[in-house]
Amino acid sequence: MSTSQQPDPRDRPARLTVGVVGAGRVGPALAASLQLAGHRPVAVSGVSDTSRRRAALMLPDVPLVPPAEVLQRADLVLLTVPDDTLPGLVAGLAETGAVRPGQLLVHTSGRYGAKVLDPALRAGALPLALHPAMTFTGTPVDVQRLAGCSFGVTAPEELRLAAEALVIEMGGEPEWIAEEMRPLYHAALALGANHLVTLVAQSMELLREAGVEAPDRMLGPLLGAALDNALRSGDAALTGPVARGDAGTVAAHVEQLRKHAPQTVAGYLAMARATADRALAHGLLKPELAEDLLGVLATGTDATDGTDGIEGDAR
C-alpha cells in the first residue's frame, strides 16, 4: 500500500491491549492481525473445546478467561459471536458493569451496525462495527487472506477515522456502510458467497453422479472464469441455455435433476427464473424465445412440488 493510502499517524490508535469474546473462526484471526500491527492480545474467551483449541493455535500463550475478565484486561475488545447472540451479550456485559468508559468495543456482525452496541455506549464504551467480507477457516491462513479484504465499517462519525485505521492496520480496506443499510449489505454478501458454496457443492455432487472423477478439477477453471467475467461485466457475462432461450435443454435438465437429485430442482428453477429475468432485461434473451422457456420453468415447478403458485408466464 502506498504512503498516500496510509492513515495520518495522528489518526492511528495507540498500541492497544486486545481481547476476544468468542473464539470462533473470526475473532482469533483478527486479533492475530492486530498483533502483527503491534497491538497486544491479552485475553480470549471460548466455551467449546474447538474454540479453545483454535485460540491456542492462533493466539498462543494468550490466557483463556471468562468474557467479563476479557473486558477487564483489554482496551480493545472484539465481540465475535453469532449474530443472534450479540444483542444479549452486549446487554449482559453492560448490565453487569463489565464495560469500561473509553473502551473500544468492536463487533464483527455483518447484520448489525453500531446501534446494537448502544447499551455499551451508555456505559461509556466506544462502539465500532467492523465486518470482514471474507470466509474464515479458523486457521492461520485467515490472517493472510485479510490482506486487501474489504470491511463493512459502521461507527459514530467521530470514531470513523479510528475504525478505518484499525481496518487498515489489519491489512483490510474500509468500506463505509450506513447503519440502516447493514441488513441489505449483509444480505448481498450472503447471496453471493454463502449461496455460491451451496451451488458449487451441488454441482460437484451431480458431476460425481454423472461419472466425473475429479469434479473440482473440472469446475475450477470454469467457475473461476465465470466469476471473473461476472465481476468485470455483470449481466453481460451471462451464458448458457437460459440466456440463449434453449427451452428444450432446460427441460432436459429439469427431467434429469428430478430423476437423480430431486432436492436440487427447486434451486435450479429459482435460479433459472432469476437468470431469465436478467437476460430479458439486458437484451440477451430474445422475447420470442422467452415464452417457451418460462413455460418450461413454470411447468417444472408445478410438476416438482405440486403447487399452483406460479403461472405459465411468471418470471
Descriptive overview:
With 315 residues, the chain is α/β, with parallel strands linked by helices. It is built from 13 helices and seven strands. The chain has helices spanning 27-36, 49-58, 67-73, 86-95, 118-122, 141-145, 160-169, 182-209, 215-233, 241-244, 247-260, 265-281, 287-305, and strands at 17-21, 40-45, 76-79, 104-107, 126-132, 150-154, 173-176. It has a seven-stranded mixed β-sheet. Helix 11 (247-260) packs parallel to helix 13 and helix 12 packs antiparallel against helix 13 (287-305). The longest helix has 28 residues, at 182-209. The radius of gyration is 24 Å and the shape is elongated. Mean pLDDT is 90; it is low at 6-12 and 301-315.
Notable features of this structure?
315 residues; 7-stranded mixed β-sheet; 13 helices; 50% helix; alpha/beta; 7 strands; disordered C terminus
Tell me the layout of helices and strands:
Elements lengths: L16 E5 L5 H10 L3 E6 L3 H10 L8 H7 L2 E4 L6 H10 L8 E4 L10 H5 L3 E7 L8 H5 L4 E5 L5 H10 L3 E4 L5 H28 L5 H19 L7 H4 L2 H14 L4 H17 L5 H19 L10
Parallel strand pairs: 1-2, 1-3, 3-4, 4-5, 6-7
Antiparallel strand pairs: 5-6
Helix pairs in contact: 11-13, 12-13
Number of helices: 13
Let me know the largest β-sheet: 7 strands, mixed
Q: Please provide the count of β strands.
A: 7
* Distance between the amino and carboxyl termini: 46 Å
> Roughly what percent helix?
40-55%
Oligomer: single chain
Indicate the radius of gyration in whole angstroms: 24 Å
Q: Shape, please?
A: elongated
Task: Give the low-pLDDT segments.
Answer: 6-12, 301-315
Topology pattern, helix = H, strand = E: EHEHHEHEHEHEHEHHHHHH
Q: What average pLDDT do the residues reach?
A: 90
Tell me what portion of residues adopts beta-strand conformation.
5-15%
Structural class: alpha/beta
**How do the strands line up in the largest sheet?**
2-1-3-4-5-6-7
